[in-house]
Design brief:
The complex is a heterotrimer of chains A (595), B (611) and C (356). Chain A has 595 residues and is α/β, with parallel strands linked by helices. Among the domains of chain A are: 100-201 and 353-417, FAD/NAD(P)-binding domain (3-Layer(bba) Sandwich), CATH 3.50.50; 205-351, FAD/NAD(P)-binding domain, CATH 3.50.50. Chain A is built from 23 helices and 25 strands. In chain A, strand 19 and strand 20 (442-443) form a beta hairpin. In chain A, helix 3 packs across helix 19. The two termini of chain B are 43 Å apart. Chain B folds into 4 domains: 3-195, Pyruvate-ferredoxin Oxidoreductase, domain 3 (3-Layer(aba) Sandwich), CATH 3.40.920.10; 208-390, Thiamin diphosphate (ThDP)-binding fold, Pyr/PP domains (Rossmann fold), CATH 3.40.50; 409-481, no CATH class; 486-596, Rossmann fold (3-Layer(aba) Sandwich). In chain B, strand 14 (348-349), helix 12 (354-371) and strand 15 form a beta-alpha-beta unit. Chain C has one domain (23-326): Thiamin diphosphate (ThDP)-binding fold, Pyr/PP domains (Rossmann fold, 3-Layer(aba) Sandwich), CATH 3.40.50. In chain C, a hairpin with a 5-residue loop joins strand 10 (267-271) and strand 11. Chain C has helices at 38-52, 68-71, 90-100, 112-118, 120-129, 173-180, 193-205, 231-237, 255-259, 292-304, 322-326, 338-341, 344-354, and strands at residues 60-64, 81-84, 105-111, 133-139, 142-143, 149-150, 184-189, 209-215, 238-247, 267-271, 277-282, 308-315. Classes of the chains: A alpha/beta (595), B alpha/beta (611), C alpha/beta (356). At the B-C interface, strand 9, helix 7, strand 11, helix 9 and helix 10 of B face strand 1, strand 2, helix 3, helix 5 and helix 11 of C. Strand 17 (445-447) of chain B pairs parallel with strand 2 of chain C, so a sheet runs across the interface.
């Protein structure tokens, strides 16, 4: 293999698996170390700069970082990254000194943000410090978009939401709430310098089965129903409720129903439990609240009597793994159909982009799925002035994606407004490596491996939580638990850096490495090398770090897969050929770029 | 007036002349006739040609100590004629080979010369020069049988037993015996006024030396490993062990051995092997003498600190340095007690008789295992190499070895966290494990460097001090486990303290002192550390004599040091000439002390003095 | 010395041996030796050899003397007892331990200061006695713990770190072992585990006295230009005569194995007592690893040329050990109880009778 170019920013970025997996590339180990040191405000700001909504995300994020966490590969349970984020938010102090300075003189450019959800808010945050004038339009009476309308208060208390939304609104956004946008053409006529569309994926899917029309009064679309609850239009639900669907919205619907007085709530899913879209912890919470989840039951018919919904007929299927594709498909089991009585149905089977207000003759093109055609890097639509982000860009995703899109869109908008090339002039990613050696056995980070298992987050008393939709279920880690959990972080951003000319091939690093990551061997192609290492390197998704040829003709090969970043190789290296260096991956954002 | 069974006879021979066998037969013959005897081999550090003496004391009263003066000298070594003649008490006898007439050096008016032309008797009878040399000894043995009135059957019987299987040797030996006996009967006045007569006093007794007895004790105690390096006067102990082990520890079916003996390259290796074996759970011992003890000191310190059982027999000889390698002394006491550097000390046992050599050897292994520390048995040449009349050995077949606190696999299963040096029982003794016992628990690192209660290396002052204090506590436990002192009499203002081979002359001296109006209470020390009784005994007397066989009063030092006793209270009675101390020397010195200090000498009064 | 504790967690795919244990189960405490010390590689090689042989990690007696090398038994086989004895006297302690329990694998680790100076007498005699053990000398030619004095194995002319040459002839423990009767003699290099590990395996299973002199550089005091015990020097002057491959009991040559094309007359296999084998590959057809005199001559000649001969130099597969010589019972002596050991009063009566 060729020697690894560790100066390529993406090389070490990949090693920081959590950060690599995070759409916003939040420097997770950085803020976890700050939490361990009880420096919550700084930890919060590291998050805020990157993902904009730490308090909200600390409760609601889909956490792509956690399955990526190296601890999953070394010891099964990932660090509770999301909950640690919340620790930072819950315990932070006054953040105002850390907030970006806002120029008193505007730069003369006006930007319209359509929709007041996370994507638009994040764009606003990035643009405002550079002197842009930002106008925000939303049909709802308050900001936050789906964060407000779709996430129930027992998961995301209103004050947490409002604090982080207001933080941005108060930076000088001209907010136009209760403003129903009906025509993009009209908006364009208002002659802003650029437009950002962050209106989300507001249309909940429906199911056209026999009886659907007849029972319309008894069926609600999940996201609409949740929004109606959020804005105080709906206060109760009665009778037997069936929630259809297996995603997070379904989980929110069923748990909300339970709190609003349903006689019974049942979730019915057409697919298997394991492949439900809902996050594991959301499923667990629902089950924990004793809400039955019935799987492998595709609905067939709505049964009604005199316009009154009586129940639903479901077929019975079983999942079969297709040998060739490895995918699941469903076959009828042959059992008779199942009839389930109900009085109300909440339909939570997915949502989609929906922009009926964008005229199709204004140069803004849509694809065959009725999604806008966008540049994946710049988020620019075919109309040069119009940029998209969040769910309205590529379909429903999590809030963290909205933040990620927003940063890129904000850069694009800025470049666009400055008349620069959106691609050529985009700031590059960067990498900084700084040795962490402080003394003979002293490292600037806590290298000691903590074998502790993942700590459990305390919950509110169930009788209290189920009686009131506003009572938050998860209580979050306190300072002590947060500090303990933070110690589980392996500091994957502190990299093992190998300097060939210093190596005397004494094997000290090979001998000490607890995970058998390091091998000195004759070079070969990747498959060959992977097979010849001290311990098998079967995880091809993780890179091999290969050195230049050493005096004995061998190369150093390090399997990055299960490295604990404990620093023992560097500790035991007599010549400092190994060093522990903190890699700071520089993901450009408008603020840092412009400054 | 004829004196029966009470005399000292000394054989003066040339080393390597084969006299040992004849002299031994002489002693054995007396023993078999029930004459209470003790023997002393006074030999040079030499193989052939230098003077050697063998002394037999017969004592009707059963005194086993050395007595001054020789009643009958068998002067067979021209080189020492002068001093041999001088050693005879006035009126005593001097037997010599007068083949060439009476040598002038043997002339003394106040003694009786007994000339036998031994060489002339031999020459015509035996042609082989080697036999001529050997049979000279047999001839004087034959003559002595007549002179002292020894049953001839006893002697011939012994010859027959000794040469069983080599029958061609029996007849010439008996012939030589008869040559001497016949000559004596024919030409000399037989028997002499000092003579023997049969008694039943020794029925059931045995005659044995301390080294053989100790070896047998080790065998009975289950010692499986003996590592040693030849050094007089301990060598015969290892050799006796080998003999007994071959006889009693060989598997009848396979012929395989249930013991291992290594003649090591030096004393360092010998004790190292013992410690390695002790660490690994076998009972092991070494036998050595003073110079060996010096060499072993480093290892003894290791075993003390690492707490490993080891048994060491120090058969003392006269030091310092090479000293007098074939002479006896009690000069290793301090070196043994405090062998090695730092705060080290070792339990000591002081056997006084062959029976105790047997018993203390066996006890030493139990003690060493119980205390997890080296135990040193302090014998000496006097006890180790000389045959003495002894009670027969006994062994309680119900006796179980005390292997001390050794955890089995099952024990370990039940233990949460094993701490090798934890004082669980409050006696200062931790629990140990043997290598290979348990797959997960109980392994630890043994080292001579400081460690904590869990055997983890540390140089923390608290951990070190705690460990040393625990070792001191163990030492106090040891005081109650080593053999207690033997105390006799509780009525007198003065006492006498002694140990080891001083016991035999002491018994005699005590009687003499009582007769001379200086009766003493007596305490025989049998072990170190000292039991509470020891301090009580000394506290209970105005002053005490401490009798021992070294120049520097080492036991006095030990008592003063360990028990915080006023040194002025202890009057040393010392002898360090290389022979064993005699009753005469002890009694004289004590009487002298009474006289020098104008202490009243009274006949013993029942009820005690002023009490 | 390092303060960061080595984590217990291990590679999830670390292979298990026949006992269901992985290599980490054979480790010891984290080394307190200098970073890069060759001795740590030797410890790691022992760990690997024992794990791959599926030897129970608690069935060892690890014995050492004093010095850097002698600290190392702490760093492997944590489940076993170790004994850090006194300077140069490891052989006697090992002898006692082996006599007491012949069933334990006995590993003695010593250094050149320990074995070639104060301990040279004990070294010579343990070889003579054929104690069934693996005797390793971590040979770095220097006194590390006292900061860099020459040891007795340091080559004449080799210089100290400050450039002062050594004026005296070296003691070669390999030659001594060959001469006095060791039945398995090898030299290896801490920086070459491919060579060292199979040698350790062969030595561990060898019945009799197995000696391996491992050149194990001292990074602190003897790894400079001018040293003949440095990583560079040994790599530059090493000459392996016979390499050993360990073939387990149930070894069946894999396709890759059979492809290896050994020149005729250059390989042979040597049976080990447990049924496994060592395959010896000779670099020189004329070298006979069963000829003691030949091996000795070869070592001496190479020494003249400034070469460091490594590999398996001599092996006698039919050697006996001390227990065989002493004809001791199969049961470990430390496992015998009163019934087997104490002849009892009946015998004593007979002994007493013999003393009358």
């Amino acid at each position: 293999m060729k020697a690894t170019d560790i100066r390529d920013p993406s090389y070490f970025h990949k090693v920081v698996d959590c950060q690599w997996a995070c759409p916003a590339h939040t420097p997770v180990p950085d803020y976890i170390r700050l939490i361990a040191e009880e420096r919550y405000t700084e930890a919060y700001m590291v998050n805020w700069e990157s993902n904009v909504f730490p308090g909200i995300l600390g409760r609601t994020c889909d956490r792509p970082c956690e399955p990526a966490c190296r601890r999953v590969r070394t010891e099964e349970k990932p660090v509770a990254i999301c909950r640690l984020k919340r620790v930072a938010a819950d315990h932070k102090g006054d953040i105002s000194p850390y907030m970006p300075a806002l120029p008193t003189r505007k730069n003369g450019k006006r930007i319209a943000l359509l929709g007041a959800g996370p994507a638009s808010l994040a764009v606003a945050r990035d643009l405002l410090p550079l002197g842009y004038e930002v106008d925000l339009f939303d049909r709802d009476p308050a900001g936050g978009g789906m964060m407000r309308s779709q996430i129930p208060a027992f998961r995301l208390p209103a004050d947490v939401l409002e604090e982080e939304v207001d933080l941005i609104l108060n930076m000088g956004v001209n907010a136009h709430f209760n403003y129903e946008i009906t025509s993009m053409k009209d908006m364009l006529d208002m002659n802003y310098d650029a437009y950002f569309v962050g209106t989300g994926a507001p249309r909940g899917r429906d199911l056209d089965l026999p009886g659907r029309q007849e029972v319309d009064a008894h069926i609600s679309i999940g996201i609409d129903w949740l929004g109606s609850v959020a804005f105080g239009h709906t206060h109760s639900i009665s009778g037997k409720v069936i929630v259809m669907g297996g995603g997070n919205t379904a989980m929110d619907c069923c748990r909300t129903s339970k709190r609003l007085g349903a006689e019974s709530v049942t979730v019915v899913v057409r697919s298997a439990f394991e492949v439900m879209k809902a996050s594991d912890w959301e499923k667990e919470e629902a089950l924990d609240e004793r809400i039955p989840i019935v799987n492998n039951r595709p609905p067939k018919e709505f049964v009604h009597e005199n316009g009154k919904l009586k129940g639903v007929v479901f077929g019975c299927v079983k999942p079969v793994r297709d040998e060739a594709s490895g995918r699941l498909r469903y076959e009828p089991t042959g059992e008779p159909d199942v009839y389930m009585e109900c009085d109300h149905i909440l339909m939570a089977i997915g949502q989609e982009n929906h922009c009926p207000w964008i005229e199709r003759d204004i140069g803004l093109e849509f694809d065959k799925w009725d999604c806008p055609i966008l540049d994946e890097t710049t988020f620019q639509s075919t109309h040069p002035k119009v940029f998209f982000g969040g769910d309205s860009a590529f379909g429903p995703e999590n809030i963290i994606w909205a933040s990620a899109h927003a940063h890129q869109a904000a850069i694009s908008i800025h470049l666009f407004c400055q008349g620069k090339d959106l691609k050529e002039d985009r700031p590059p990613e960067g990498l900084n490596l700084i040795s962490q050696k402080m003394g003979v056995h002293e490292w600037s980070y806590d290298a000691e491996h903590d074998p502790a298992q993942r700590f459990i987050v305390p919950h509110a008393d169930k009788s209290k939580a189920l009686g009131n939709i506003k009572v938050e279920v998860e209580l979050g880690f306190d300072r002590a638990l947060g500090a303990r959990e933070a110690q589980r972080c392996l500091n994957c951003d502190v990299q093992t850096v190998f300097v060939e000319p210093l190596c005397i091939e004494c094997d000290a690093c090979v001998d000490i490495c607890p995970m058998d990551c390091i091998t000195f061997a004759s070079n070969g192609d990747e498959d060959d090398l992977r097979a010849r290492l001290t311990a098998p390197a079967e995880n091809a998704e993780q890179d091999l770090y290969v050195s230049e040829e050493l005096p004995t003709g061998r190369v150093m090969v390090k399997d990055e897969d299960v490295c604990l970043h404990c620093g023992l190789c560097a500790e035991r290296c007599p010549t400092n050929a190994w060093d522990m260096q903190k890699s700071a991956i520089h993901i450009p954002q408008l603020g840092t770029y412009a400054a | 007036m004829t004196v029966y069974n009470d005399f000292v006879i000394r054989f003066a021979n040339v080393n390597g002349s084969g006299s040992a066998s004849a002299n031994g037969m002489f002693a054995k013959a007396l023993f078999r006739m029930g004459v209470p005897i003790s023997t002393r081999n006074i030999f040079p550090s030499n193989i052939e040609g230098l003077p050697t003496w063998f002394e037999v004391r017969a004592s009707q009263a059963g005194y086993q100590g050395r007595r001054e003066g020789v009643d009958l000298m068998v002067a067979m070594n021209a080189e020492t004629y002068e001093e041999d003649a001088a050693a005879v008490v006035p009126g005593g006898y001097l037997l010599h080979d007068n083949s060439k007439g009476l040598d002038r050096r043997l002339l003394r008016a106040d003694i009786n010369a007994i000339g036998i032309p031994i060489a002339k008797l031999i020459l015509p009878e035996f042609t082989n020069p080697k036999q001529r040399k050997l049979f000279k000894n047999i001839v004087y043995l034959g003559a002595l049988s007549a002179l002292l009135n020894i049953d001839f059957d006893v002697i011939t019987g012994m010859v027959s037993t000794q040469y069983k299987g080599k029958d061609e040797l029996i007849q010439p030996n008996i012939h030589a015996l008869e040559l001497g006996r016949r000559y004596a009967k024919q030409y000399l006045e037989c028997p002499l006024p000092i003579q023997v007569r049969r008694t039943k006093q020794l029925d059931g007794k045995i005659m044995v030396d301390g080294n053989a007895a100790g070896a047998l004790g080790a065998l009975y105690a289950g010692a499986t490993i003996c590592a040693w390096y030849p050094i007089t006067p301990s060598t015969s102990m290892a050799e006796a062990f080998e003999k007994y082990a071959n006889q009693w520890r060989t598997d009848a079916e396979t012929g395989q051995r249930k013991f291992a003996i290594i003649q090591a390259e030096d004393e360092l290796a010998a004790i190292g092997i013992v410690i390695g074996a002790g660490w690994n759970g076998a009972r092991a011992f070494t036998a050595t003498s003073g110079p060996g003890l010096s060499l072993m000191s480093e290892f003894l310190g290791l075993a003390y600190f690492a707490e490993i059982p080891a048994v060491l027999f120090d058969i003392q000889r006269a030091g310092p340095s090479t000293g007098m390698p074939t002479r006896t002394q009690q000069g290793d006491l301090l070196a043994a007690a405090y062998a090695s550097h730092g705060d080290t000390k070792h339990p000591l046992l002081f056997p006084a008789t062959p029976k105790e050599s047997f018993e203390f050897a066996a006890d030493a292994f139990d003690l060493s295992d119980r205390l997890q520390t080296p135990v040193i048995v302090l014998s000496d040449l006097e006890l180790g190499m000389n045959d003495a009349v002894s009670d027969a050995f006994t062994w309680d077949d119900a006796r179980q070895y005390d292997r001390g606190k050794v955890l089995s696999k099952e024990d370990l299963d039940d233990i949460e966290a094993f701490g090798r040096y934890l004082d669980v029982d409050g006696d200062g003794i931790g629990y140990r494990t043997l290598p290979g016992t348990h797959a997960e628990k109980g392994a630890f690192f043994t080292r001579g460097t400081s460690r904590d209660a869990y055997a983890r290396y540390t140089e923390a002052p608290e951990a070190y001090t705690e460990n040393m204090d625990r070792l001191a506590k163990k030492w106090r436990t040891a005081a109650s486990l080593v053999p207690a002192p033997e105390i006799s009499g509780h009525r007198h203002r003065a006492g006498v303290v002694f140990y080891g081979t001083t016991a035999a002359p002491m018994a005699e001296a005590l009687v003499r002192l009582a007769d001379d109006g200086a009766p003493l209470d007596a305490m025989r020390l049998r072990g170190f550390p000292f039991a509470a009784d020891v301090a009580d005994f000394i506290d209970g007397h105005e002053f005490v004599f401490v009798v021992e066989q070294n120049r520097d009063a080492q036991m006095k030092t030990l008592l003063v040091n360990e028990l915080d006793i006023d040194p002025a209270k202890i009057v040393p009675v010392l002898y360090y000439g290389g022979l064993s101390i005699s009753a005469d020397a002890i009694a004289e010195r004590i009487i002298e002390h009474f006289d020098e200090h104008n202490l009243p000498r009274l006949k013993e009064v029942p009820g005690g003095l002023g009490a | 010395m390092t303060f960061v504790a080595k984590p217990r967690v291990h590679h999830p795919q670390l292979p298990l041996n026949d006992l269901g244990l992985n290599r980490r189960d054979y480790e010891g405490a984290v080394s307190t030796l200098c970073a890069g010390c060759g001795h740590d590689s030797v410890s790691a090689a022992i760990v690997q050899a024992c794990a791959e042989l599926s030897l129970p990690p608690h069935r060892f007696a690890k014995i050492s003397g004093i010095g850097c090398s002698s600290k190392t038994p702490s760093y492997f086989l944590n489940a076993s007892h170790g004994f850090n004895a006194v300077h140069g006297r490891m052989p006697s302690v090992a002898t006692g331990a082996n006599l007491a329990n012949r069933e334990l694998h006995c590993i003695g680790v010593s250094g050149d200061g320990d074995s070639a100076s104060i301990g040279i007498g004990q070294f010579a005699h343990i070889v003579r006695r054929r104690i069934n053990m693996l005797y390793i000398v971590d040979n770095n030619g220097t006194y590390g713990l006292t900061k860099g004095q020459f040891s007795a194995t340091n080559d004449k002319g080799s210089t100290s770190k400050k450039g002062v040459p050594n004026l005296y002839e070296p003691i070669d423990l390999v030659s001594m072992a060959l001469q006095i009767g060791a039945s398995f003699v090898a030299r290896s290099f801490s920086g070459d585990k491919q060579q060292l590990v199979p040698l350790l395996k062969g030595a561990l299973l060898h019945r009799g006295f197995a000696f391996i002199d491992v050149i194990s550089p001292c990074v602190a005091f003897n790894n400079h230009n001018g040293s003949t015990k440095s990583y560079d020097y040994v790599r530059g002057h090493g000459a392996s005569v016979v390499t050993a491959d360990f073939l387990p009991k149930d070894f069946i040559a894999t396709a890759a194995e059979t492809v290896v094309d050994y020149a005729p007359g250059t390989t042979e296999t040597v049976a080990l007592p447990d049924g496994s084998r060592l395959r010896l590959s000779k670099l020189d057809e004329s070298y006979d690893p069963h000829d003691r005199a030949h091996a000795l001559a070869h070592v001496l000649e190479a020494q003249q040329r400034g070469e460091v001969v490594t590999g398996l130099l001599y092996v006698d597969p039919d050697a006996s050990d001390c227990h065989e010589i002493l004809d001791t019972v199969e049961t470990p002596l430390n496992a015998l109880g009163e019934a087997e050991l104490c002849p009892g009063q009946g015998a004593l009566d007979r002994i007493n009778a013999g003393l009358r």
